[in-house]
């Protein structure tokens, strides 16, 4: 059975995409720990990150770094955190988010019902930052 992320990637469920390429996508999580919290996900469904081939993992790291720079710019963050937890959805994903303290790494602190307009705004801010840094060809349409 396809994971929820595969359904988002395939357009069966909605997603606020900020990045799309042939191997990976990035979209806002519906439960952010901080505004601008993005998930970088391979198109290929793999449950455990250590089981991915090195080329795919390297690509995800590269996309995470590019998206992280855009998130940092869009939100004026001092630091950007990344995390692979792998407990929520059985499909590899890298969390990329602005952080102010170690508490921001606690996914238990994620917003349960964030304002959809705030998520839309965050997505557009990240898209604009990606375009401004030369990655326009990968920026997903709203």
TrEMBL record:
Source lineage: Bacteria, Bacillati, Actinomycetota, Actinomycetes, Mycobacteriales
Enzyme Commission number, as recorded: 2.1.1.-
Matches recorded under PROSITE patterns: HIT_2
Keywords assigned by UniProt, alphabetized: Methyltransferase, Transferase
Native species: Gordonia sesuvii
EC class: transferase
Single Gene Ontology MF annotation: methyltransferase activity
Any matching Pfam family: HIT
Motif, Histidine triad motif: chain positions: 91-95
GO biological process terms on file: methylation
SUPFAM superfamilies, per the entry: HIT-like
InterPro entries: Histidine_triad_HIT, HIT-like, HIT-like_sf
Tagged with keyword Methyltransferase: yes
Name of the featured protein: HIT family protein
Domain HIT per the UniProt entry, residue ranges: 4-107
């Amino acid at each position: 059975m396809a994971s929820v992320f595969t359904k988002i990637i395939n357009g069966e469920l909605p997603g606020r995409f900020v990045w799309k390429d042939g191997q990976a996508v990035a979209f806002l999580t519906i439960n952010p720990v901080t505004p601008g919290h993005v998930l970088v996900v391979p198109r290929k469904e793999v449950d455990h990150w250590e089981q991915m081939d090195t080329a795919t993992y390297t690509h995800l790291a590269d996309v995470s770094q590019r998206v992280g720079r855009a998130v940092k710019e869009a939100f004026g963050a001092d630091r950007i955190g990344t995390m692979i937890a792998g407990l929520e959805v059985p499909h590899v994903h890298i969390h990329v988010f602005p952080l102010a303290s170690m508490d921001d790494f606690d996914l238990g602190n994620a917003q349960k019902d964030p304002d959809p307009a705030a998520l839309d705004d965050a997505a557009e801010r990240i898209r604009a930052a990606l375009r401004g840094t030369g990655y326009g060809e990968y920026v997903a349409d709203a």
